[in-house]
Records
---
Amino acid sequence: MTRIPSKSEILSWISENPTKAAKRDIAKAFGIKGAARIDLKRLLKELEEEGKLTKRRSSYRDAEELPPVAVLEVVGADADGDLFARPLEWKGEGAEPRILMMLRSSDPALGPGDRILGRLTVDKTEDHSHTARMIRRIGTNPQRILGVFRQASEGGRVLPIDKGSDKQWTVAAGATGGAKDGELVEAEQAGPKGRMGMPKARIIARLGDPTEPRAVSLIAIHQHGIPDHFPDEVVAEADRAKPASLTGRTDLRDMPLITIDPWDARDHDDACFVEADPDPKNAGGFIIWVAIADVAHYVTPGSALDREARKRGNSTYFPDRVVPMLPDRLSGDLCSLHEGVERACLAVAMRIDMAGNKIDHSFHRGLMKSVASLNYEEVQAAVDGQPNDKVAPLMDDIITPLYDAFTALMKARAQRQPLELDLPERQIVLDDNGKVTSVQYKERLDAHRLIEEFMVLANVAAAETLVAKKSPLLFRVHEEPSPEKLDALREVATASGLVLAKGQVLKTAHLNKLLKGASDTDNDELMNMATLRSMTQAYYFPENFGHFGLALRAYAHFTSPIRRYSDLIVHRALIKAHGWGDDGLSDWDIEHLTDTAKQISDTERRSMTAERDTTDRYLAAFLSDRVGAELTGRISGIAKFGVFVKLDETGADGMIPIRTLGREYFHYDAESQTLMGSDTGMVIGLGQRVTVKLAEAAPVTGGLIVELLTLEDRVMPKGPSRGRGKPPRRKVGSARKKTAKTARKVKRTRK
């Protein structure tokens, strides 16, 4: 007779095998066959009714799991000196989890009663169920200082690198952390703020030489004035936040929503699920659900959190760190859609037909529970036939429908024809010490495109709903290129043997045709870069001027409220428009929409500049030991003072000073973006292949100076230009008249 396992044995097995929790997996594990399956089904039903298991379609999950990030209370140390903690918010009916603290040497001393925000890892042993790393202590928020350490006879001082800061901090002998004179250090306030004398600090991180890669992002943060320290009142307000309840919300907890993010994502603000549309009138159609973290529930208008989030505008991302818009308690915990945890959300259900056209949509303020947190690579591998243990059980009911809906959306995208630029994104890979080990180009997977298409559709739905309800909002605006930039693009196209006709209303389809004509030719990268340069910069505004690049009439950012303030404004507008609560768009929000739009457009540009500067410095540091090496690339920019070259291997931009170009004087033509030799008539233009020698790499500034060796395989003459005087400028004429001439010279030069 088949032995039926006990309830505790079933719970223990499910806990150890969370990815194999279907009834058939449980039956197979315990050798249950035939009629005995009825008894197993009865046991599982009883466990579900007792609240010890929750059923999600065909699988079961432990109802008493902890989130990846949680507030913990230290309960004390055992006889061996190991420190333990308990979760502050425990909803399970079983024994409260015991958590072993894994403290680093740099963590502050903790005692019974202290509360911390911790990152949890399941580690079931006899004396504990989880281990935890401290993110920070709750209720303490010491000021951080970045500066250069200067040694003294006892201890030392920290000289901040902040612009305009002349206040020094004193460091006691026992608080230097081993810092050496001249090192860049990160310090924090030690003890209460005194009224007399220099404030006290302790070193918490040694960053070494200020020119080393590890210090690069911190320098950029301070150089560009990006706020990286939350005021005490903001942290305290975040710490007081409690998880949202089901009251006034749609219960979406039984919907198998999943998150798909980069493998190293710290927060998860969007989840999705697809089901076939049951309406027979829409046979072959789908209902796409997109659920977004309900940040508006926690960040209310006029609060300290709201003021700080508006000030920051967005999160800023560097290769080695993130400067978040919201404190960890929200961004990494309560607002993050972690697997197996109830989270507040704003969800949109969008019906599409089999051709990917949106038929209608509806918004809901709900409570959800993600069934899985996946990354792009493992989802793509599963679709390509190599699912891992976590994704395999989700394939039939969750992953496959997602891709079916994505296929339909791609049909609609082909009809709409948004701008299809092919510009690979660089990824800087760092080791544990912050040194660049490699520079890679991120692979674009269908898993990435799937999430992008779902998010675009959700953003369109948000804009359409708010326009229909005549609600104020912030649109994401992307205007079409200016006539001057289009003329410059036509110059490049003509020199490449392509045509961008005049006298027509410009559409993205025209630009896509141009890009397609250049694909698989030597001018492919050139045309993509030139098209990108012709684009205007997107921005936020209360009035709708459309989104040219996406070929959409109305577009608003709705899907990333954890990292963008614009999305929070759209969430509040939806809450107010639907009458979901008193935390919607306030009168102050509405009155200051234009100011807010400018503020967050500016902070977005600030972050982009800081991120770009950081990337340049990392690349310069990476290449600094290769000075003198020969590298290949393409000309990516022409200026009066020199030529910019995008290097093939790293994508870094090097500059060739114009004074080093051969032995002749070069005339600069801004309209055609070319340099023309005064003696030979040689034309240097965008997109040409070059070989250069790395002459200088400056990590502090991020500058790369290169020397031109060959242009389209033609060896360049060496030596200074003849004489110092400027030769008489050739009569060039208008851009229109010299187009053919320039094209002939480019062709001759390449031969």
---
Amino acid sequence: MEERARAAAEASRAKTSDSDTLQQNYVTPGLAGQQISTVDNSRTFAPNIACQKTATMLEVLVQPASSGDLGKVTVARDTDLDGTVDSTANLSVPVSGICANGIVSCQPGTWNGCSFYRWDVDTAKALKLTSVDMPKLAGCYCLNNSCGTNLAWGNMASVLRDLGGGMIGALTTADPRYGVAEAVIDGPSIRYVGAQSTACSANPDLPQTAYRANPATIASDAYAASTGNSVFQALKGSAIGTGTALAFRHCSIERRVTVLKPGAEDIISRTAGGYSTIQNGSSFDFLMGSPADNSLAGGSCTLIDFRMTLHVSEPDRIVDARLARFFADDWAQVRIDGQLIGSGPSAWTSLGLPPGKCELKKTFYAYPNLDLRTFLTAGDHEIWLRVAVAEGGEGFAQVHVDVDNSCKTLEQVVDGCGAIAADPQCKLDSELVDGVQTWINGVATGLRPLPQTRVLGGPSCPTQLTRDFYLKDRTYRCAVDDIAKPDTSRGAYVIDHSTETLLADRTRQSDGSYATSTRAFSLPDRGSVAACEPVCKTRAPKANSEAAPDGVVGAKQNVPVGYDTFFHACTADNQCPADPGEEVVSACGCLDDFPEAVVMMQTVRLAGADMVCTGSVQ
């Protein structure tokens, strides 16, 4: 049996060992309607998987000039795939460089005055060149004498493949019905064998190819097709289709936003005492005392108290609060919640009589501009003005407060799905995010809503708010009654208790008990295999002719020559089949160049990243 398996593997390997062999034995004859033989060559058959086929879908003939440019490029096509070439044209410009999707045309033999062209297809499905900026081209390189000598003739095969590949890419993108079966290089020409193998329709705008432009529609189209298919729905609703008894649970995640515009008096207000409140927009002046001249009568020295209560509702909206000024005839002290914050005309800290002669026969004025915000926390606060008067006098204090009474947004995300999502028996079945279907039938559609800007608060307080979502409407599919599952305990016992030489088993008896047994067991000799497929690594010199918007790469380097690296599978006698011009870097063996590959990929990735900040004009 092992010999038969090895023989079958070798026969299959002989026909599918690499891409060239696979193309030669299956792809090309399959698309061209030629004979294909089975793996063991016992039978042959002619498949017919292409609607139309031609030996010359596209042929490109080039003629290098003495300047190194491709002076003449002739393009011949069989546009209707009937086997006859019906269109021939020459490029109107010389080719100084080749890109994956276009060409570069410069002054012959130089890289000056260059124009850049991309391969396109016109309305008649004919190839054309469209003038573009160089960043819209990919993989460009130079091939005329400004980059080296004899580059076109010396690398004719790759030049033809790159030039023709750009044309084929434009043709198959414009008309996805057609495919390329084979590319044949003959001297300075390349010929593509083509076939139409998709839908067999005369119309290139096929529903089957529409998903290439918009892959996200596959999910919704598949759902629409399944809902109209009675067989699919029958299977879906069967015990096998569901596997469990299901309950659908609906919930939502909502962003609730409230816009408030408080009145200034809702932030701070005078609730007791004082004699006046002067409001100017969002500013308050709270006045207390008896400021009229000699409005207070005293004896030799009389203490008179004035108390004012301020209620603070939103301390975080108080922008500024200060003891603006106070005055008295004769003495005064100001306290807030019992703490002394000002006195005059000199220091007076006790609750008793002033520390000097009571009668001063004049009025003193103080402008402390003292910050009171640390005192004005949420709640009630008492401002206390004490005046010492001999004979006649007066007293006054002013507290100035600025508040922010602008619109305020209160935002809250109410998650009504948290408990359901945390249940391991529940899976998301469908989801609508602000009207966009992001999940359907348990499959993500790939669609996401754009951030939305809403105007909230009404005419009195319009507020713009931009958020990723406002409402997620979800349906979860929850398993509530699992169908009886098969008993796998016997298999688990065999696996857990057997060894390479002993097979253990446990069987259930008619009375419900279990009987265990063991017997000798051995695996056949599995033979030995090589640790790896021996490969070798080679390199060959090449001119650095790659081109970028700033010019040819080699012109910016001290040594304008690099190397191409190749890996070859070694022969049966462990020899490296290096091609002419290649130098062996690593001999045959189990090579591991993974670290080098990672470094190369990181280099390419980081080379495309910004090296300076581009968030603002520099």
---
Amino acid sequence: MADVPLTAADFPPPSVEEWRRLVDKDLKGKPFTVLQSPLEGGLSLQPLYTPQDAPAPSEPPGVAPYVRGTQPLGHTEGGWLLCQEYAGPDVAATADALRDDLERGTQGVWLLLDAPHGLDVKDEATLERLLAHVPLERTPVHLEPTADVLRPASLLLAVLAKKAGAAKQALRGSLGIDPIAALARHGAAKVDVARTLAEAAPLVTSLLKDAPGLRALLVSSRPWADAGATSVHELAWSIATGVEYLRELERAGVSPSEAARSMQFALSVGGQFFPEIAKLRAARLLWSKVVAASGGAPESQAMSLHARTASATKTRRDPWVNILRGTAESFAAVVAGADSVSTAPFDEPLGTPDEQGRRLARNTQLILRDESSLNRVADPAGGSYYLEQLTGELARAAWTELQRIEALGGISRAIAQGDVASVLTETRTARDKAVRTRKLPIVGVSEFPHLHEAPVQREARAAMPAQGEGIIAPPVPVRVSEAFESLRDASDRYHAAHGVRPRAFMANLGTVAEHTARSSWIANVLAVGGIEANEHHGFADANAAAELFAKAGTSLAVISGPDALYPEALPAYVAALKAKGARTVAVAGRPGDHEAAFRAAGVDLFLYAGADLFQLLKTLHTQLGVA
């Protein structure tokens, strides 16, 4: 009989019900929920998604509600806009950087304005010098002021009129009028949202007629994203900002369609790859629904979406890892269909980025486009059961939060009443707990730290002054790595003062095979706090370990070994170590039912996965005299 080739049909996959029965059997009584992964914002990721979770999208790309992007062919015609952010502080140096970057692949310019962290553009002449090497007729220029949101717009228009001449129809970019972001930063005493938008209304109307590619208004999530907002809150508060702009501009005589077409949205992309893709897709969905409900025409429902890599996820320690973080975040932004993307230089947390930092940031996107060919697929996320379902879940959660904000009177009132600040405090507290317990690990900082790394030096920025007036406090930018980095900073100061790092004597009990996994973990944890581990093993007895400890030049001893050895060995080892001058004896692992006995034997603290490692390391610093 002739051989009959086998096909996929001969091996049908198990049904979902069959898969679930097999999983339940393997779980051996544990609930199915243990396979779910919690997300911030009250959402959960399932272990498996099927067509029943998310049917194939019915609308193609380029059609309302624009979940799949605003262009019918996605990025396949020219790709997304590679945008670079600039914040100074030196206007002349930034002008040179603009020239160099535009010659090497940058396509758009995003200017962060206002001292101390932004460019100090005081007048038209300064802005003209800044843009001296920028071909304005073909380079989109976006402003993001943090203080006076109207004056920079007039300055840019004056420069454009002088340099670009009559080619207004070709101009692209945004003027950055975003009074709610300014309200969040400075308080109600300095920002009147309604009055600002009323003053901007004639400009909105004129630009739509004379320069339709130049958007007057900006909706930036930066104040909240940098201060620790979850994806749900960032999404909801950004849409709420757009809603308030629609409402106020309509009162000033601008139709919803015109107002929507005048807005540029700018969202941050954090470290959770797939949820961030879903967030940007959900943003377009929600905005389309909002504009449609406001009476806006279908073409005005398309969101102009800029994505920036998040500042909160970047680290000062081992900053080279920021290159990987920026790559993943840029990748997510492109897959989600962002119209333009800014990749922050890896050295941005250290101060003013240098040429190398800007080049690596720029080349990240060039490689994604020209070598990874991400511009050759329209909506690469489309049809993924996982991403389609997650997009819907994020949109529904953000819509619920949007309704809550509207019930408070809108996002301006929510800010002025302190509601936004209160929510940010709650989310930062929860995230900080996850960081301290390493449920949210940070490579190079709380995981796999490089204790002897060579520091990367950059020109430091001026300190951010206290802002906010009236009844609210402004959201404070925070990076998730700051707590653990403070421990490394203290270790550096100790090293500068004493010539050595703070040290721990590690007594590893049992055979190498028995203690290696745990002792390696402990050495890693100590390095997170800037404490150098001095490891020893193979002791004849406790007294032998104590003799070695006496020569180690430290007051901290850490005992690491298999749990089975602890009940019998710990009392003798702890007593011997303390007799030789150990002020603190820590033990690796959970004490379990033996905690009372171990503490009675003299154990001071326990180091184990799931503990508040920041607080434990802070305690060790205190006991070692590290300030």
---
Amino acid sequence: MRGLMLLGGACLLSTALQASDCQLLENTDALPERGDIRIRSIDFDASNVFDLNEPGTFWLHRFANYSHIITREDTLQQDLLFAEGDKLSLAELEETERLLRSRRYLREAKVSISHYCSESHQVDVLVESWDNWSLLPKIDFKHEGGVSQYSIGIAEDNLLGTGNQLQLDYAKDSERTGYLLSFASPNMFGSHWSSALQYADNSDGESYLLAVERPFYRISSPWAMGFELEKHKEELREYQRGEESNRYDSKRNWLQSYLGFSLYASTYSAQRLLLGLRLHEQQFASNLDTQNGLPLDRDLSALWLEYQWLQSDYQKLYQINQFNRTEDINFGWQWTLQLARLTDWLGADANGWQLSSRLEKNWTIKPGSWLLTEHHFKQQWQSDEPSRRELSSHWLVVHHLTDQSSLAARFHLELGREMYRDELHQLGGDNGMRAYPLYFQRGQKLWVASGEYRYYTPWSILRLFDVGFAGFVDAGRAWDDPWQSSEASDQLLFGVGGGVRLLSKYSSRGTMVHLDLAKPLRSEPGLDSWQFRAMAKRRF
């Protein structure tokens, strides 16, 4: 017995001596410059939706916390890009933090080193997370141009704390009504495979979606694989000056499968090669309301090869696209180039080629000012058909005046040639011109520019909605529509307005309610002198 007591005392003394050299670490700059530091332990600190110690909390917040299932530790564990015993990499800690923050059921995440043990050259890592409210009586709405659109239902974005999503909706918009049932898992059993199942029964047809994918979930991922099957049937409508001019039925069948490999990967850059197959069939049919013909049926089934080059240079910013939320913005180059072979033995209408490319790059102009850009290009060649081409470019400049105000300027350009009739660009309402009805202009070419003053107040409504204000001016034009008269889409549009922004900061959807009143700077028959817009979206 005495021997056992001595042995136990020795173990306790050894543990105490081992722990004595482990000190709190407040800054990673204090770590020694050596490459063999290991992760000794990983601790988790998951917080509920509301901090009940903050002033202004009442029974509603207490009930929300009581009825909410906090994200489970194993759910957080499954997203970690490191494990106990691994060699410490600060880049992996930062990448894990971004991955956790991208999960809609988390409002914020932080991955840091809590202790450093100088004798054993080990560290303790702390993973902190703050939950969003995930069980939502879902109410999305939009009203503009005299048209109301809404959806009601229920959505759970963190089912039993597992991160899985379940949703049931009833929706009505300007074109259809219907029911939607969907399930999605962003990380099945910690395998980094994601899945999505969706079924919709709409007034104009049934639709379903099945998708399973293991993406390049981290910059050093060695491979990726994906499969997607979709059938979509709906009634499409065409508009002229915001008024309906034609209807027809559309049926889309889509299947895509791909396999990707990493050609090169380092801490901050990667090059990848993907090979894939897609079956893409689009068919159109007349109905009782068809008055102005139909788009062309088409089959664009193809084999494709894609090259990706990307850099990882993220910064944590605020008040860019939202407010009062952390935004991870990548300032590295991101470029993809895809070459597809349209082939008749897969079902394509004719043999041909498709070339598409995407380029994203963001810059810090000066402290407090940023430029964000995104560009797309696509060209298609098929025998006995004209060459089709699309180019789009998006530019956003944000300048912070103070911690509570900023200026934002946006420019968007779309240039198309020989576009398919059902894919023409639309301008009006939520497509850039807030003082005009939906679908007011359309064409193969479009540009829209906006300037906006944003003010972020310290106000909060019941600690559920953060309040902001915006004043804006919009200008734009859509033109070159081969199926409508030039008079319908060749005039320059201007509009001014202002509104309120209500951010549901603690919601897993992160939506922002826009309440805008805007005035078109022109008058014509049928155009209201003021447009009221009420809608929910994710951007300011």
